[in-house]
Amino acid sequence: MARVAARLSASGEQSTHPVDEVLPLPKLALYGFQHVLAFYAGAVIVPIIVGGALGLSTEQLVYLINADLFTCGIASILQAWGIGRIGARLPLIQGVTFTAVSPMIAIGLGAGGGTAGLLVIYGAVITAGIATFAFAWLPARAFRTIMRIFPPVVTGTVITVLGIVLIPVALNDAAGGLGSPDFGDPKNFAYAGGTMLFILVLMKTGRPFLSSIAILLGLVGGTAVAFLLGDAKFGGVGNADWVGVTTPFHYGAPKFEWFPILLMLIVMLITMVETTGDTYAVGDIVGKEVDSETVARALRADGAATALGGVLNSFPYVAFAENVGLVRMTKVKSRFVVVAAGVFMIVLGLLPKAAAIVAAVPHGVLGGAATVMFGMVALAGIQTLAKVDLKEEKNALVVGVSLAFALLPATVPVFFKEHLDPDLSSLLNSGVTLGATAAIVLNLIFNGLGEDDPHAVAEAAVAAVPAQAEAPADPAPADPEKSGAEKSGAAKAADGAPATP
C-alpha cells in the first residue's frame, strides 16, 4: 500500500482531486485505510492508558477500545461529511484528545477507579461536549475574547506540561504497569527499549509513510517479539466475540459532579484551540478558504462528538494533527477519503477480537511507544515556546512557575490525598489542570489579553499538536514568499471565530 501511495504521489495524480471530489471506490478504500493506519495507535492508546490506570478488566478494556473506534468513525464522518451547520467539510480525522488523559485519570481515581470512575468521567464528558457545542453558536466577539486568553506562551506551556505529566505514565508502563507482579523487571524495560529503538530507526531512516505509522509498527513489532518469547498472552482473543455492538451507557447511568465537569470544561477549552489550528492548517493545504463559519462548524462537530462519546462509553474528541500532516504529505485532498476512513473505524469498532489483540499488547511494549509519543508532545510544546520571547521576564515567569505547579501532584501526592476535600482533590490532583490554570492566570496578570488574532493562536496550536506524520510530511524549508493560501491566513484572522447564527 505504501508503494501504491508513493507511486500515485510521484505521478502527481492525487493533486488533481479537489476537496469535494468523490474518488473511485478503490482509491477511497486505499487512502482511507492509510489514514486509519496513521491514526490507529493514537486512537487506541488513550483508552488503554485510561483503562489501565482505572484498573479495568481485560474484557472491559476491550469494550472501551471498541467504543472508542466506533465513535471515532462517527465523529470523523460528521466532521468531514457534515450535517447542516455541523462539521467543517474538510479532511479532518477526529480522535480522542491526549489533553484529557491525565484529567480523566484523576477524575476516575478520585471516584474510586473502575467502572465507578468511568461513570463520573462520562458525566463530565457529556456536559463539556454540550457546552462546547453551544459555545460554537455564540457571536464571533465572544469567541475571539476566549481565544485571546491562549497566546503562544500559554499554548506552548500547556502542551509542554501535557507531555511532562504523561511521560511518567508511559514510564510506569515501561516498567510493567503499576500493580503488576513483575513491575520493575528488567525484561519489561528491555521490551520498552527495543520498541523505542525500532520506532526511532523507522522515523530516522524510513520513508515518509513508514515514519507516519512508526508508532503502530513499533507496537506490532514489540508485541510479536514478546509473543515469541512467551510474554504476550492472546488467550482473551479466543474468548472475545467476533461481532459486538457498542450500546449507550454500557456501564450505567453517568454521574454529574461539579468539579470533574469544571475540569473537563478546561480540557475542552484547550481542544478548541487545537481544532481551530487544525482547521486553518488543513484549509491551507487543500486550498479551501476557511472563514469564521468553517471554524464554528468544526467546533460544533467537536462538541457533538464529545457528547456522543460520553453516551457511547468513550471520551472527548478533537481534530487529529497526525492526519493533517498525512494530507499534506500525500496531497490527497478529498474529504471523502476521511469519510471512508470513518467507515473503516466503525467496522473495526464492531470487532471485539481486533480490540482484544490490541488489549494484549504487553505493558513494556506499550510503555516504550508511549514514551516516544509523550516525549514528542513535550518537545512540540517547547518548539512553540521557542517562538516566544523568553528573555522577557514576564513570559519566563509564566512558563517557569506553571511548570512548577504542574509537578506538584506527582511530587507531593500526600497533600491531595490526605489534606484536601475529595471533590476538590479530584479537580486539582492533575498536573495538566494546575499547569494550564497557572499559565492562563499568570499570563493574564503579567501580559493581559493578547492581540485579537485567533489565527495566530491557531498557528501556534498546529505547531504544538503531536503528530507522527507531520515531521516527515514537509521536510523542505519554508518558502519566504507565502502562497496565496498562506497570505489569506492573515486576512482570515480578523474573522476566525464562530459567526452569529
What topology does this entry show?
Elements: H1 2-11, H2 25-53, H3 58-81, E1 94-96, H4 101-110, H5 114-135, H6 140-147, H7 152-174, H8 186-205, H9 208-212, H10 214-228, H11 235-239, H12 258-286, H13 292-311, E2 317-319, H14 321-330, H15 336-348, H16 352-359, H17 363-385, H18 393-411, H19 413-418, H20 422-428, H21 431-446, H22 454-464, H23 470-473, H24 484-493
Antiparallel strand pairs: 1-2
Helix pairs in contact: 2-3, 2-4, 2-15, 3-13, 3-15, 3-16, 4-5, 4-20, 5-12, 5-13, 7-17, 7-18, 7-21, 7-22, 8-10, 8-17, 10-17, 12-13, 12-14, 12-20, 12-22, 17-22, 18-21
Organism: Streptomyces goshikiensis
Region (Disordered): 468-501
Protein name: Purine permease
Task: Characterise this structure.
Helix 3 runs antiparallel to helix 15 (336-348) and helix 7 (152-174) runs antiparallel to helix 17 (363-385). This protein has one domain (17-468). A two-stranded antiparallel sheet has the order 1-2. It contains 24 helices and 2 strands. It has 501 residues and is mainly α. This is Purine permease. It is found in: Cell membrane. The chain crosses the membrane at residues 37-56, 62-83, 90-110, 116-137, 149-169, 189-206, 213-236, 256-273, 336-359, 365-385, 397-416, 428-446. Keywords: Cell membrane, Membrane, Transmembrane, Transmembrane helix, Transport.
